[in-house]
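A reminder before we start the practical. When you read a complex entry, don't treat the lines as separate problems. The point of joint prediction is that each chain is placed relative to the others, so the output describes one connected object in space. Small molecules and nucleic acid strands, if listed, are placed in the same frame. In the example below there are two entries. Take a minute to note the order of the lines before looking further.
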Amino acid sequence: SQQGEEDPQALSIQEGENATMNCSYKTSINNLQWYRQNSGRGLVHLILIRSNEREKHSGRLRVTLDTSKKSSSLLITASRAADTASYFCATAAAGANSKLTFGKGITLSVRP
Amino acid sequence: DAGVTQSPTHLIKTRGQQVTLRCSPKSGHDTVSWYQQALGQGPQFIFQYYEEEERQRGNFPDRFSGHQFPNYSSELNVNALLLGDSALYLCASSFTSGGTSYNEQFFGPGTRLTVL
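Here is the predicted structure of the whole assembly.
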């Protein structure tokens, strides 16, 4: 079964715009990670946020975590055509020692 | 510094056959996890190896088995292949110290398995 539920399922924006993707989960977590996948290839690790953190930045990425609402968001600022990919959130449950549970993913299309 | 590598890239098998997939973790990593990703879905956890032992297992039948070698590399074996085993198989490596995993997992490019 999949814990993370990403929203929306698909997103299409113009280059230069910001893209916001949301993820909700059901059980307590140790951390939440976001990944990018291009055309069914391997997953690229984007960012990890721990359960005691509320916000984290990495370059053009901003991730927030609200453990009371069991939700996270990924913001990509000033999007580029190269950001076109599928994005997944993955949760590691408390005590589960690094097993990741993924959602179904969000397909982001950035139009040039 | 090589990242996670997997072989082969693609594989075609027929129902009932057996397959072995291979993974070498990122340098400095000692823990290997395997995931199955069906088309249009997120990856599903199969199992994880640390210190040459299976530490956790997802909801997969015993037809799926694995092994970890002293150099931390790993194999995934699938017996009696079914059409539904067609998927992208992903290997991820991470670092565990003193029994605590640092959780950040780095994925390889995957092996695309097609079962005919």
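Discuss with your neighbour: The interface with chain B takes residues 1-2, 4, 30-31, 33, 35, 40-45, 48, 88, 90, 92, 96-105 of chain A (CB under 8 Å). What might explain this?
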